[in-house]
Specification:
339 residues, alpha+beta, 2 domains
């Protein structure tokens, strides 16, 4: 989708990439559009504060170096410094939402962390001047709230604002921005139209490091737009998507790394069929990995992880769980080439 690329361009101008409390996290979800059908959340501070990251300096340094490299490549790093914003200390979480039933390039990003509005304004305006004709930036008022109107050349305009010291938003639609402000201020009710999505969102929580929720409708829509949508595998995938109401996935990094995938099927019988097929597929993959491990001992930690994977049906839901223990992670890291 072009939406992600546009946000990166805007980030160079608006720097959009005290820790948030659960109440603040809930507030962030409430300001999303009512027709939202896909949400991805990355809880950066939860990840950096996990036992695995605290006890593995090499992993932390690799992650920080990669992120810093990406920011510098996109010329965002210098503007972050001007705004006094340290991404590893001041950015708590990122929430990306995509609405259903309209242009797939529409979307909303909510950033939580610690923001200095005055410093950010100075950095944004400087970035806009240096961008020249490639990106136009101007200050506007929307729904009584100050915002940056960011228009990359030949791209859709993005509206960005610091709502308070802990919250920033970026929207590709002015109407989404105005409604987000209204929900943030409590003058507009917050609710999701899609019942399946509303239920799936409730399965996510602040303890999860990364979470993903999407309806089957929006996943099918995105699959149809895939350049390879006409091949047999894509057709099989779309057939499966038509049988499910939604998906959820989460990764929780603490002492170990827990994985969970949820599929909301049409009914309990379909969920049972999915679970049986998933377990059968897992058995085949486990056997293949175990065979390869006999020839390459470096594959042994992967065998340990694969053996934790299990699928089960709970009512109309298919749940697949797995865990990567700290001991297994250490073995995997030892097998990586030195940077």
């Amino acid at each position: 989708m072009q939406f992600a690329r546009r946000l990166w361009i805007a980030a160079a101008c608006m720097l959009a990439t005290s820790l948030a409390t659960p109440a603040v996290r809930a507030q962030a979800t409430k300001i999303l559009p009512a027709d939202t059908e896909m949400v991805v959340t990355v809880n950066l501070q939860q990840i950096l504060g996990s036992e695995i990251f605290k006890s593995n300096e090499t992993l932390v340094n690799l992650a920080k170096a990669k992120i810093t490299e990406q920011l510098d490549d996109k010329e965002i790093g210098k503007y972050l410094k001007k705004a006094g914003f340290d991404i590893f200390k001041d950015l708590t979480s990122v929430i990306v939402a995509v609405p259903g039933g309209r242009d797939s390039d529409d979307g909303v990003v909510v950033l939580q962390g610690k923001f200095d509005a005055d410093k950010i304004e100075g950095a944004v305006l400087e970035a806009g001047k240096q961008a020249g004709t490639d990106v136009k930036v101007k200050l506007v008022k929307i729904a009584g709230t100050s915002a940056f109107e960011v228009t990359p050349k030949d791209e859709k305009t993005i509206y960005v604002s610091v709502l308070d010291k802990k919250t920033m938003i970026a929207c590709t639609a002015k109407s989404d921005f105005a409604e987000a402000v209204a929900r943030f201020n409590g003058t507009k009710a917050s609710t999701f139209k899609d019942a399946a999505f509303k239920n799936l969102v409730q399965t996510t929580n602040n303890k999860q490091s990364i979470s993903f929720v999407a309806t089957g409708k929006i996943m099918n829509k995105l699959a149809e737009k895939n350049p390879n949508a006409g091949n047999d595998q894509a057709k099989m995938l779309m057939a499966v998507l038509q049988q499910v109401d939604g998906f959820s996935a989460a990764v929780t990094i603490e002492k170990n790394i827990d994985f969970q995938l949820g599929v909301n099927a049409k009914d309990a019988e379909t969920a049972q069929q999915f679970a049986a097929a998933a377990n059968l597929g897992l058995q085949g993959v486990k056997a293949t990995v175990a065979k390869q491990a006999k020839q390459n001992e470096k594959m042994e930690p992967l065998v340990d992880f694969m053996n934790t994977l299990k699928a089960e049906a709970k009512g109309p839901n298919l749940i697949i769980r797995g865990q990567l223990t700290y001991a297994t992670l250490e073995k995997l890291l030892q097998n990586l080439p030195n940077p």
